Fold this protein.
Amino acid sequence: MSVPLHWDGQLGPAHVATIETAHRLYHFLPQALQRIRGISGRSAIPQSATVAPLAVGGGMAVYTMLLQFSDQEPYPLVCKIPHQRRIVYTTPTDHQSTDDTTRQLLDRLVALADHLAQRAPGLFPRSGGAWHWQETDGTARHLLVEEFIPGLSVERLKLQYEQQWLADTLDTEGYQQQRIAIERLAIATFVRLWDALDRRLFTSDPSPWNILVRQSSTFLSPAPVATIIDLHGLEEDVGLPYVLQRLAAVYGMRQDIIVEVLIPGMFDALGVPEGKALLRDALPALEAEADRIRQYLGVDMQQPLLQHVRALI
Ligand SMILES: Nc1ncnc2c1ncn2[C@@H]1O[C@H](COP(=O)(O)OP(=O)(O)O)[C@@H](O)[C@H]1O
Ligand SMILES: [Mg+2]
């Protein structure tokens, strides 16, 4: 029995066809639900599903699928379709086609999501799986399904605080505190990612757009939960120096960011003793990188970071 699909809003005909084909060929909805929620059998079969656009996306178009049940609350899923001929995540090596690379990378993303679901629940959306097939004309198609994360991005929250400050509903000190707290949470979350990926892999885009803070957690719970929604390019074999440099490049090399956001966020994720031990090990690499940048750019951008690290360890 096929689940009827409804369409809400502007969907490209190619994307409608992709979702319909995956639905017809693979019955991907019950499978995805089983992987994400751990339910199976009749309760994993929705009565209907409504597909609506969520974001255009850089590498993939993002849709929500709201599943309706006769005996359960509606349940949302996220479905992602790579943009045609757009290389998702990384550049292919010479002997690989874009399609092979896309397939491998999406499968890898599913495997990483499964790993993270065990190691650090809530840090990354649970995966519903990835499906790949070919049209009769040979065109490769891909579909990725994952848990919907209800929340606002760190970037959007910062914008909200700024608007509250401009509207005078938040004073300057309150605004600073909120901004620092949310950025520190972002740093802690990205460092937890590195930690949960065996301190070996890191995202090349740890930006405040790619992290959602769960709505329910912003005011009620003292420890808000943040989820990374986009791993983007993955960097292999990277240690703490790389992670700190990437985060500082995105959130700022300024003294106040380093002292109030970067290092405290890292300590939140790893604990103070462990964090200090890792900083001690990282110092030579940080110094070498600072030298390299000084020679290359002629400016000493990394001094605030080095000074703070030396003072701490
Ligand atoms: N699992 C998810 N739950 C809720 N929203 C999501 C989810 N994945 C993506 N989004 C939304 O879609 C946007 C784009 O997704 P993302 O994976 O970051 O793609 P890209 O960076 O290529 O544009 C995100 O900024 C977010 O608003
Ligand atoms: Mg993104």
Summary: The first strand starts at residue 5 and ends at 7. The pocket of magnesium ion (ligand 2) is lined by residues 209-210, 230 (CB under 6 Å).
